[in-house]
Amino acid sequence: MAGTQQHESAVDRIRQRVEEKAARRLAATEAAKEAAGTADEKADAGEPEQPEPRTDGAPDDAPKEQALPGVHAETPTQIPWRGWKQIIKRAWAENRADNMPIIAGGVAFFGFLAIFPALIAMISLYGLVASPATVTQQVESFASGLPGSAQSLLTDQLRSITGNSGGALTLGLAVSILAALWSASGGVSHLVTAVNLAYDEVETRNVVRLKLLSLALTVGAIIFVLVTVGLVAVLPAVLDALHLGIVGTILAQALRWVVLLSLMAGALAVVYRVAPDRDAPKFRWVSMGSVVVTVVWAVVSLLFSFYVNNLGSYDKTYGAIAGVIVLMLWLYLTCYLVLLGAEINAEAEHQTARDTTTGDPVPMGERDATVADELPHPPEPTKETATSA
């Protein structure tokens, strides 16, 4: 009985938030029409236009700077360290309350199912301008950073794909590419849902808009991987041909990895900005979590690869499916960190009363974004809020 009441309560809360979001959007549309009509009437009457007051400040009942450091911050870098301590504590509490460790497992599973259709689409497109052997060699170099068993799983599948791929764009190839993109976008759609949860948003977009968003992000991910393959697999050969010397080569290699990590941080920022069903945040408010996740992900991936290759016993424990297990674990770590970055970004927006969304500043409560429309209360999570779902 209690479980039924909790389920009904959750459904009621979701329905209420959907209705509130729809009402806010309708009110904003009507207000814009009314403002436009009033401006036209004043112009016809010859009245001078009055400048609109700034509405991006804190409300009258907002906490003071001492209680909520960074409440007047216009960028994440203006939030002092005391404010970031509150953000990190709330992000960790929200991460647990939103069940992100479990959700990350689900996203990783669907991501695993999407990997091979995405590889088919990528190799099919790449194969139009390069031979299958070249494609295989370069993508294998890209996968060399993964643990050995996971690398073998991917390279074996790559050889199978490239062995059956052609070099011309035919109707059958076009259909197979579209089918692969459609299948791969299923994994991306679950990532969109998870990021929505991290931002405490309720999904109100229709199925068509969600699918188009997932397809666009899937195509973007494939382009990102192709650029990454160029940086990891093609650029070293170019550097060798340039004969830059020892110092020049070292600097070029270091710059290559800086560019690679910067591209990943930028890609994550795009996901954090477009995935939630809300008024889009300014890029500055999605950059901090992107950078943190990218750096931590690089370190965790290196440590995980070292552990699996040198200390782990996955081959002995799981036998033939060791590669699948290792790849799933790496995907889980990646998804978990991506969702943790979304929580950090969300709580950073939550810390300030300034309008963090795109467009002209509007008052709190009218920004169509949960974390931008509210201030945290309390600023630091209590034991009850940290453990409640």
Structure explained in plain terms:
By secondary structure, the protein is an all-alpha fold. It has one domain (92-387). Helix content is 72%, strand content 0%. The protein is built from 13 helices and no strands. It has helices spanning 2-45, 81-97, 100-126, 132-142, 148-163, 171-198, 207-242, 245-274, 284-310, 314-318, 322-351, 370-373, 383-387. Helix 5 crosses helix 11 and helix 9 packs antiparallel against helix 11 (322-351). The longest helix has 44 residues, at 2-45. The radius of gyration is 24 Å and the shape is globular. 31% of the residues are buried.
List keywords for this structure.
389 residues; disordered N terminus; mainly alpha
Biggest sheet overview = none
Number of helices: 13
Rounded to the nearest angstrom, the distance between the terminal CA atoms is 19 Å
The level of helicity is over 70%
Q: Characterize the quaternary organization of these chains.
A: single chain
Principal-axis shape equals globular
How many domains? The number is: 1
* Tally of DSSP β-strands: 0
Question: Can you summarize this structure?
Answer:
This protein is mainly alpha-helical. Helix content is 72%, strand content 0%.
Topology at a glance:
Elements: H1 2-45, H2 81-97, H3 100-126, H4 132-142, H5 148-163, H6 171-198, H7 207-242, H8 245-274, H9 284-310, H10 314-318, H11 322-351, H12 370-373, H13 383-387
Helix pairs in contact: 2-11, 3-5, 3-6, 3-7, 3-11, 4-5, 4-7, 5-11, 6-7, 6-11, 7-8, 8-9, 9-11
